[in-house]
Amino acid sequence: MESLIRVRNLRFRYEDGTSALDGVNFDLYPGETVALLGPNGSGKTTFMLHLNGLLRGEGEVMVCGLPVDKANLEEIRRRVGLLFQDPDEQLFMPTVLEDVAFGPLCQGWNPADAQARALRALSQVGMEGAAGKAPYHLSAGEKRRVALAAVLATEPEVLLLDEPTTYLDPPGQSELLRLLEGLPQAKILVTHDTWFAEAIATRAAFFQRGRIVAEGSVAELRHRFGWAARLLPRACGRD
Amino acid sequence: MHHLVVDEWSRRPGWLQQRDPRAKLVVLLTYLVCVSTMRELTPPALVALTVPLAAGLVLGKLPVSGVAARAMLVLPFAGPVALAAWLGGRPAQGLSLLVRAFLSAAAVLVVAGATPMPLLLRGLEGLGAPSFLVLVVQFLHRYLFVLSEQAQHMRLAALSRGAGHGRARRRRALWRAAGGALAVLFARSHARAAAIHRAMLARGYRSAIPSLAHMKMGVPDWWLAAAGVILIAGLRTVLALGS
């Protein structure tokens, strides 16, 4: 099967010289949901920003068969939707409808079609009633759903989700889980929430110091790295 | 978090809010030219210049006190020049400068308060303003919200740790700390603005913020532009002939 995302020997240094990625190899196949686990500063988010062309390092990054370079950026950003950790950074237009329509309009859809796509995406996440509201009047869970609608409105083939459960209460997390499970796109999920990752991911990769040091199921990696395992059994009643 | 009041006004269901931004901008431009080129601000001239403003306030369902209070923000900037004229023995000229600054700011506020910013900018672009200038204003407007939000977050954080209460000495210490807070505010706003820009790029942003609204000059828009320009230019001519 041909991979949707193929990364080979990706290296990246920030301007201050900090090495963030140190030879990452990764593949994402259609229908997969991969959780990226690992400690803070291990390079997970930096890696994800490369998949949308927001950062560019050394090495090979192919998205849907296209190399991530300046010539393909527009097409790559159409095919890869990125949900940011903080929805307040993602929602910048005056109304929910305008915000969700932003992506389709940038892609060149006419206002009527962009609006239709935006309304469809809002209804997909159950937020059609909020179309006329200002994003800053929404609750954290609603903002998260609208941000997801804004990504879905561009009809991407791959979804990148950066800490999607941040700011969400447990019912909000369950709701997001149901929503994501119903989406057909391949997904990459950066998270510290191993319960959420286990519930949705088909496999996981563990980042450490800018490298993927292990791959397997979420449960395997959690067990292997002793990561969050000490707190989880008591907090969630799971083993 | 509180957001810009003017932005909220622009979403009110007023007649003026529904008009094409280009029509409003043409009338505004005529008004500004008229205010700045009027030789003397006599009482009849003042009354005449207030009429279009009052009409804008009514048609846009805008609060008089809110617009007036915000228009006064321009006075500290015009004040030093007016003061210099006053001290130079030309008090009437100084006063006239202040009045012109206030009327101009109020007129800009009426149009900005009756037009959502993305539409206003599209209107400017439609009238031939350079795209680069429009882009800069777009980002200034967006980041104004960011700055305001960050300032509010920091204020809440300071209040939650006891700032703003207590003796004068503590208040003085708070003022001194405010200098450092300003630097932090700038740094945080800069980081936030960069994150927003990244989110915009991720969704395909290239060089302009698109809008769902379709701009089309309808009959009422043509009426507004024509009536506004004729009324204001007519008043200006009559006052010039009378003086």
Task: Explain what you see.
The complex is a heterodimer of chains A (239) and B (243). With 239 residues, chain A is an alpha/beta fold. Chain A folds into two domains: 1-64 and 157-239, 3-Layer(aba) Sandwich (Rossmann fold), CATH 3.40.50; 89-156. Chain A has helices at 44-51, 73-79, 87-90, 96-106, 111-124, 140-152, 170-181, 194-200, 218-225, 232-236; strands spanning 5-13, 19-28, 33-37, 58-63, 66-67, 80-83, 158-162, 186-190, 203-208, 211-216. In chain A, the strands form two sheets. A six-stranded mixed beta sheet of chain A has the order 6-7-8-3-9-10, sandwiched between helices. In chain A, a hairpin with a 5-residue loop joins strand 1 (5-13) and strand 2 (19-28). In chain A, helix 4 crosses helix 5 (111-124), helix 4 runs parallel beside helix 6 (140-152) and helix 5 (111-124) crosses helix 6 (140-152). The longest helix of chain A is centred in the middle third of the chain and has 14 residues, at 111-124. Residues 234-239 of chain A have low confidence and may be disordered. By secondary structure, chain B is mainly alpha-helical. Chain B has two domains: 2-126 and 216-242, no CATH class; 131-202. Helices cover 75% and strands 0% of the residues of chain B. In chain B, helix 3 packs antiparallel against helix 10 (219-242) and helix 4 (64-71) packs across helix 6 (91-113). The radius of gyration of chain B is 21 Å and the shape is globular. The chains are: A alpha/beta (239), B mainly alpha (243). The A-B interface holds A 49, 52, 54, 74, 77-78, 81-82, 84, 86, 88-90, 92-95, 97-98, 101-103, 105-107, 111, 114-115, 134, 136, 150-151, 154 and B 1, 3, 7, 11, 116-118, 142, 149, 192, 195-196, 198-206, 209-214.
